Each structure stands twice: as structure tokens, then as C-alpha cells.
Amino acid sequence: MNFRVNTDTWFIFCILFISALALCMILFIIIPFFMRKKQLNRIKSRNEKKIFKYSQLDRKKNELKLSVQEEDIKKLKTDISDYLYEIAQPDSNSPNLILFYSDFEKIYPNFSQSLKKISPNISANELKLCALIRLNLSSKEIGQILNITQDSVNKARYRLRKKLGLTSNDDIFTALLNLT
Q: For residue 63, is it within any domain?
């Protein structure tokens, strides 16, 4: 058996074998690379979708908070108007008076603290008068609520102007409005 391989055939066979190995190695490297790249793109797009959904949910959450706060303020304002005519009780610790002040402080936070910073010796009755003035009630309405005459309300406003350091030309309502 005389088996003899031609060197040209052997050379071509070796080149084909080496080329097939090289092709397999390249495919072994390239295919996982592109698969990972494709997977990373999918993960990236999923994350972008999640971020977009979270931003939409966050925006909706903020809108709901604002709407709930606005509804609470409207409700508190109606509650305050209900309490206005009930706070004229001679008993200063009546539950209606306490509810009125708590609702007033919810709507206008730090109102009494701001007043006390300006005038530390302000009395509880003057704080009550300031709250009623802040609600933009007329002297007649304040007099009816506090069971005093309209002239007494005007005198109390005058004394309050003095304590707050306002001149007679200054409007007390705008001063209290700019206070908070």
C-alpha cells in the first residue's frame, strides 16, 4: 500500500483546517459578544421604561398630593367659616374655639409665632382679633362674632396697629396678609 499524499493537497488541507479552526474561534468570540450586546440593549430599554413609568407615577403622586392639599384647605376654610359664629362663647376654652384656632393654624401655619416675633407682648384677644382680620372680616362681622360694638372693634384695631408698629395710613389687613 503505497499511500502517498501530495504536498499540495496536504498544504490545502492544513490551510482549510486552520481556517475552519479560526472561523470557529471567531464565531465562539463574536456570537456571545453580540448576544451580550443585545441583552444589554434589552436591559437598558427595560430600565428606561421603568424610569419613565416611575416618573409618571411620581408626577401623578405629586398631583394627587396637591389636589388633596387643596381639598383639605378648602374644607378647612369652610370649617373655619362654620366656627366663626360659634367662637363668641364667653368660655375661652370651648371646643369650638380650639377647633377654630387649630384649623386656622393649619391654613396659615406659624401665624401666631410671626405675630409674637413682631410684638412679643400681644394678648390672646389680640391674636383672636388678628385671626379674624386675617380672614378679611369687616368690623361689623368681627363685632358680631366677639359680641362687642363696631366702635370697640375699631379701637382694638387702633391699639393693635400701635403694638405692631403700623401708622394710621397702613392697612392692617395687608400687614397681616404679608406677615405669613
A: yes
